[in-house]
Amino acid sequence: MPNTSAAAAYVRFYETLSPDTVSELKSVAHEDVRFKDPFNDVFGLNAYTEVLGAMFRAAPDIKFEVLHCSYDGEVCFLRWNSRGTVKALGKDAWTVDGMSELRFAHDGRVISHIDFWDASAQFYERIPVIGSIIRFIQRRVAAH
């Protein structure tokens, strides 16, 4: 059975995450943690911390909200959204809807965090030139 209090602590960490709290990752994530999302696949606490730091450099005001938490055996699934401004793209209020699969080490900290979200629809399509190309390709392959 999963440790629901460990999952709750991880959710609290993410929902209160800021540049000032990134260093607290070690309290909820194992030293050998794997973090994977559409842009990253890293192993270890230091690499995961670097990913979070890069995220805040790109989107300094990003916030996460966990909408649902569910368990299946030893796995915890989260449905979430994030909102923030991506500085490099000059876009306001980017929202990403996603899901995460969490697995826990014996000490209760997260050993695996894998994010699932549609980078094409929720990121690349919003970039002017790339978005036009992606939408063109989608129209060509879509069932009519």
Give a quick summary of the entry.
The protein has 144 residues and is of the alpha+beta class.
Spatial strand sequence of the major β-sheet: 2-1-6-5-4-3
- Please give the count of helices: 4
In the CATH hierarchy, what is the architecture at level 2?
Answer: Roll
Determine the mean pLDDT: 86
Cα distance spanning the termini: 45 Å
Q: Do you know the CATH topology?
A: Nuclear Transport Factor 2, Chain: A
Task: Specify the helix fraction band.
Answer: 25-40%
Whole-angstrom Rg: 16 Å
Q: Report low-confidence residues grouped into runs of 5 or more.
A: none
For the largest beta-sheet, the strand count, sense and barrel status come to:
6 strands, mixed
Give the tally of β-strands.
Answer: 6
Oligomer: single chain
CATH class: Alpha Beta
Order of helix and strand elements from N to C terminus: HEEHEEEEHH
The coarse overall form would be globular
Question: How much strand?
Answer: 35-45%
